[in-house]
Amino acid sequence: MKSPQPTLDKTIASCCDHAHGHTSQPTEPPQMPQKSGSATAYRIATMDCSAEESEIRRALEPVTGIRSLGFQLGARTLVIDAPTDVLPLALTAIRKIGFDPKEISKSGDSGDISGAHSDQEHGFSSGITRLVFALVFAFGAESLSFLAPDTQPWQIAGMAIAVIGIWLAGLDTYMKGFFALRHGRLNINGLMTVAVTGAFLIGQWAEAAMVMALYAIAELIEARAVDRARNAIKGLLDLAPEAAEVRQPDGIWQVMLAGEITLGSIVRIKPGERVALDGTVTAGASAINQAPVTGESIPVEKAIGDPVFAGTINESGSLEFEVTAVASDSTLARIIHAVEQAQGSRAPTQRFVDKFAAIYTPAVFIIALAVALAGPLLFDWTWLQAAYKALVLLVIACPCALVISTPVTVVSGLAAAARRGILIKGGTYLEEARKLKAVALDKTGTITAGKPELVEWEIISPIVSKERVAAMAASLAGRSDHPVSKAIAAGLNLPFNDVDGFEALPGRGVKGAVAGENYVLGNHRLIEERDQCSAELEALLKIHEEAGRTVTLFASNEAVLALFAVADTIKETSRAAIADLKALGVTPVMLTGDNSATARSIGHQAGIEDVRGNLLPQDKLAAIQEMQKHYGLTGMTGDGINDAPALAQADIGFAMGAAGTDIAMEAADVVIMNDDLHRIATTVELSRKTHAVLWQNISFAIGIKVIFFYLAIFSGATMWMAVFADMGASLLVVANGLRLLRSGKKERVRPTSSQTRQTDYERSTG
Q1: Where are the bilayer-spanning segments (predicted)?
Q2: Contact 532, 461 (CB under 8 A)
Q3: Exactly one of 227, 442, 675, 726 is catalytic; which is it?
Q4: Alpha-carbon distances of 17 from 104, 330, 466, rounded to whole Å
Q5: Is there a contact between 723 and 196 (Cβ–Cβ < 8 Å)?
């Protein structure tokens, strides 16, 4: 098996360098949270959505000298690339709008690839305690307003309790809203600040405290829910053990921390243990469960020379492997970082929602102002009633549920894909995959296994027994290093006899003496040169060649004894995968550089009607352009350098991760880590599910707003009821988005080749 390590490393490292121009947002790729040269990373605990990112961007616009900004919302980090003397100005500007950036030390967080932190670090434990006290004070203020006598001392007491509740619950929110309003920006915090201040001024201080407490609790719960989505992939990192057994120079095995193990070290893993680092097997054989990295449901047999990945599980034998990547640079760590970078890009629906929210918030503020001013003139309301209804409108107008619904859903979709071995390089491709009308498929290594196999052999002359022919042919083939000879030897799977006078015949085959008899194993040209061809043999050769097979003939000095047909066979999963695509309404098209006869044969076996052969790289590119005009949105799947132009031209490029080349994988938008074509249909299905959940969330969030708008104006909806409605809507859309993480966890287990296939020799001797 070819080791995919170098390919995966380069691909995952360049995951955000899309080949097309349709990248999502002009944010620089977020860097790892550590200081590097003039770029400094800061953690901002209260920055967890695109609205806050936009605020910080606007605040930093007047600061000259900033070269670039890198936002990592999942990790709540901001990397500022600027001269040292500019950094204090940037931090001051950020603090003025109510955020508190903390510089991340090199030693503190550099190893935290996912950016996920404990409850204590995010302030959840202390935050919830503070908010519980705030809620108690808010209930106290409400109780006094209902039960206490309407006298000045009790009113002062109620006001004091409400102030304490507001101070405990939302001083940060209130100050951020105040700064936003002072700079002429109407955002969520600004709406809450106006609503609370207005309620306090019209004597509804108990409701002001209740609104702020409920809003703060909702914000904290939402932040935790968003963390769950953004850090869903982080659970994979925990699969890699913290320590491993390493062979020392004196031969003794010693347990070392994974972070301290260097390249080239020899690590030992026992049955049942998890692999701590990426490496190449140097001793032993075992079956490895690679599901965390590639999504494969069947364990993969590993022997000397095969790669192993951090986080995978050793199921049977003991293995020793040479470390090829340190802990922070393992394939698993890079996958997690790549998904984080993809999370930083905004999908089309998310960009739409952000634009809508930017218009929606000031529009609602104007409507609320109109209700406060025009309500008493048009309806039988007092000025206080009109003002109160306007404040209720402001509370229910908070676009939290709307703004939060899209990133949670998209991130959940990206994480769900990564769990199944599908690395999607951005939310744009996750959303657009549902629109695919056609997918072009390369043949070699994509539909087929990419290596020759003995598919059929038969006796031509019965002068020697079938068993003896097989034994002698296997002996000759076993001495050759030619791929076709190796395929014959592997297919026959027999012990080798001694070969005397073995000689390779360049461009023709091999010859040698077995058990004192001279034999040749070669191609059609060699048999013609020996004058051993016949019309019957020519007709037989033509049948095999039209089927796309390479024919090798085994002959003695007297006659041709046997014919061996070798071909690049289709993968076991290809037929079902093509059928899955068709069931989804996606038309499969094969594009290959092989001859038309071979292409038609493979296409027929795979169930593809539109087969195009003899294509050069530029021909594949032209074919993609033609398909885009004919079908519409077109995908391309490939693994070779010759596929890179077509992958880049396609609307969505799928690269095969295990066998793919660096160039092909960097040009693609989606990387299939285990080379299973089923994953293309899975990507389309996941895209459709994601799109459906997105619009369910958007419709629900807007529907709740419309209902409460009506209740606020024409019924008796209160401010705290509005907060409950907004909080409930936010939590429901988040929960709905998180459903994608559970989608498809249990996939159909497909049998391995050893379970479904006999060797051709067994069938032929049947």
Answers
A1: 131-148, 154-174, 356-379, 391-417, 693-713, 719-741
A2: no
A3: 442
A4: 26, 20, 57
A5: no
User: Which pTM value belongs to this model?
Assistant: 0.64
When mean pLDDT is compared across 45-54, 85-94, 675-684, the lowest value belongs to 45-54
* Residue linked to tokens 């390779």: 504
How far is CA 163 from each of CA 137, 156, 193, 596, 609, rounded to the nearest angstrom? 9, 10, 14, 81, 73
The CA-atom distances, in angstroms, between 437 and each of 148, 446, 633, 634, 668 are 69, 19, 6, 6, 18
Q: What is the mean pLDDT of residues 331-343?
A: 63
Q: Do the Cβ atoms of 179 and 99 come closer than 8 Å? A: no
- Confirm whether 109 is a catalytic residue: no
Nearest to 202 by CA among 552, 614, 589, 719: 719
Starting at the edge strand found earlier in the chain, the sheet holding 499-505 runs 448-459, 560-570, 550-556, 517-522, 509-514, 499-505
Q: Which of 295, 329, 363 is the last residue of a domain?
A: 329
Smallest CA-to-CA distance from 650 within 354, 424, 425, 433 is with 433
116-130, 208-222, 602-616, 688-702: segment of lowest average pLDDT: 116-130
Least reliable range by pLDDT among 26-35, 355-364, 537-546: 26-35
Interatomic CA distance for residues 78 and 89, integer angstroms:
15
Q: Provide the CATH number for the domain around residue 266.
A: 2.70.150.10
Burial 421-439 (b: 16+ CB within 10 A, else e): bbbbbbbbbbbbbbebbbb
Tokens linked to 541: 């050769």
**Considering only 264-278, 449-463, 680-694, 748-762, which range has the smallest mean pLDDT?**
748-762
Instruction: Determine, yes or no, domain membership for 698.
Output: no
What domain range is 315 assigned to?
243-329
Q: What phi and psi, each to the nearest 5 degrees, are found at residue 655?
A: -110, 145
- Is the distance from CB of 684 to CB of 702 less than 8 angstroms? no
Tens-digit pLDDT profile for residues 281-304: 999 988 888 766 655 556 778 889
Give me the number of domains the chain comprises.
3
CATH number of the domain that residue 498 is part of: 3.40.1110.10
- The average pLDDT across 580-584 equals 94
The token pair that represents 128 in the structure block: 């919830």
